[in-house]
Every structure is written in structure tokens, then in C-alpha cells.
Design goal:
Number of strands: 3
Strand content: 15-25%
Helix content: 25-40%
Length: about 80
């Protein structure tokens, strides 16, 4: 199948499906039964918060993470 034919057929299929969908509205009883709860912040490990290059040696990087800790690398090419 040619790419343009595939795109046209895909767009037509998506338009046909989305035109029949409607948003759901919860009733008052459902909303009243919901309870507030804390869901975060969670463990942020793996998230990099800062990357700095040593101004005297561009092969040295310092990296900090959201979960704590500072890492240093000296093996850049």
C-alpha cells in the first residue's frame, strides 16, 4: 500500500471513530464518593536535575539527580 493511501485511510478511520465518541459526565453521587488523597511526590530516582561541566576540564561532568546524590564522570571522549 502506498504511504499516502495508508494516511488517507487511517485519517478516515480515526475521524469515523472519534465522531461517535462523547465525553462522559459523572453524576453527583459519583463525585460525592470521591475522597482526596496524596499521590505524590513519589520516588524521583532517575530524574536528572542538573548537569555541569568543569570550567577547567571539559571532559569532567557533575550530574545531580532528583533522588539525591552527585555523580562525577571523567571518561568523556
Amino acid at each position: 500500500m502506498r504511504p499516502i493511501t495508508f494516511l488517507v485511510r487511517s485519517a478516515a478511520a480515526i475521524a469515523a471513530v472519534t465522531s461517535t465518541l462523547t465525553a462522559q459526565s459523572p453524576d453527583a453521587a459519583t463525585l460525592a464518593s470521591l475522597k482526596w488523597r496524596s499521590i505524590g511526590p513519589v520516588n524521583m530516582a532517575g530524574r536528572m536535575t542538573d548537569v555541569e561541566v568543569d570550567p577547567k576540564n571539559s571532559r569532567v561532568l557533575y550530574i545531580t539527580g532528583g533522588g539525591a546524590g552527585v555523580w562525577k564522570t571523567v571518561n568523556l571522549p
